[in-house]
Amino acid sequence: MTTTPLLPSMLRGAALSPFKRHPRPDAPLPGTAARLPDLQVTAEHLAAYERVCAFPTGHAGLPVTYPHVLGFPLAMRLMSARRFPLPLLGLVHTSIEITQRQDLDPATRYELTVRIPELRPHHRGTQAAVSTELRAADGAATPVWESTSTYLARHRTTTPAPPATEPGTPLPPLAEWHLPGDLGRRYGAASGDRNPIHLHPLTARVFGFPRAIAHGMWTVARCLAEFGAAGPVRVQTRFKAPVLLPGTVVYAAEGPAFALRAARGDRVHVTGEVTPLTV
């Protein structure tokens, strides 16, 4: 599998971040897209990802979150570019929406494209929308898989906060997971995302966390593995609070909704819905 190395992009983005501390929601965006024209999944990479996220190994299709991992290096290349107006350091992944229109075959060659179509004002700063599309490499017009992620750069803003909503009834708990301290390193090895906030308490403290935190995309992948999301489906997920490692969390679900919350107290880490698509 040919992908773009993450480390050079992370270092470039970190070096440029101090010059982007006061972004504007109306700032111009780079008009280019990053593309891998002939992406082929390797069995070793896929199996490592499936194991760390608890997806069934040897399944006929790709896990619904797997194309995000393949596209993330391209997203990092765009977000670390000089023309990208938000600082890479401190960007927070706040949501992801995934639409999968058919089962994805690991043996099929795909074309992967990543764009940053817009910035969005947020009451805590500015968000960048990052879109990823996966198409069959034969030039098909309609993506078989696509996603939109939002990444928040925190800064002072005049955008008003949305009205507060009353908390709903908590979803029924279905499982309790004890997460080891090395989970971030294991997922980083499988995904390529070796952001220091996920790897070790010492490197996480540099960025204000008391311990290493789990990757947000691991939390949603683990929830979807437990949910059994597969086939034509739409997934909407919101990241609410980081998961400290080691730690214990509770997976809850009912109907189309799922959540990941702290084992003690009422802190919610992830919420989401899974909706089957009619094709």
Which helices and strands, and how do they pair?
Elements: H1 6-16, E1 34-39, H2 43-53, H3 66-79, E2 92-100, E3 110-122, E4 125-136, E5 145-154, E6 173-179, H4 183-191, H5 201-206, H6 216-227, E7 233-239, E8 247-254, E9 257-262, E10 268-276
Antiparallel strand pairs: 1-3, 2-5, 2-7, 3-4, 4-5, 6-8, 7-10, 8-9, 9-10
Helix pairs in contact: 1-3, 2-4
List its traits.
single chain; 279 residues; alpha+beta; 6 helices; 23% helix; globular
Give an overview of the whole structure.
The protein is an alpha+beta fold. Helix content is 23%, strand content 31%. The protein contains 6 helices and 10 strands. It has helices spanning 6-16, 43-53, 66-79, 183-191, 201-206, 216-227; strands spanning 34-39, 92-100, 110-122, 125-136, 145-154, 173-179, 233-239, 247-254, 257-262, 268-276. It has a 10-stranded antiparallel beta sheet, covered by helices on one side. A hairpin with a 2-residue loop joins strand 3 and strand 4. The longest helix has 14 residues, at 66-79. The chain is globular, with a radius of gyration of 18 Å. The two termini are 30 Å apart.
Describe the structure concisely:
This protein has 279 residues and is an alpha+beta fold. It has six helices and ten strands, in the order αβααβββββαααββββ.
Report helical residue fraction. 10-25%
Sheet/helix structural class: alpha+beta
Shape: globular
C-alpha-based Rg, rounded? 18 Å
Q: Output the strand order for the largest sheet.
A: 1-3-4-5-2-7-10-9-8-6
Secondary-structure element string: HEHHEEEEEHHHEEEE
Biggest beta-sheet profile: 10 strands, antiparallel
List low-pLDDT spans: none
Number of helices: 6
Through-space gap between termini: 30 Å
Mean pLDDT: 89
- Strand element count: 10
Strand content: 25-35%
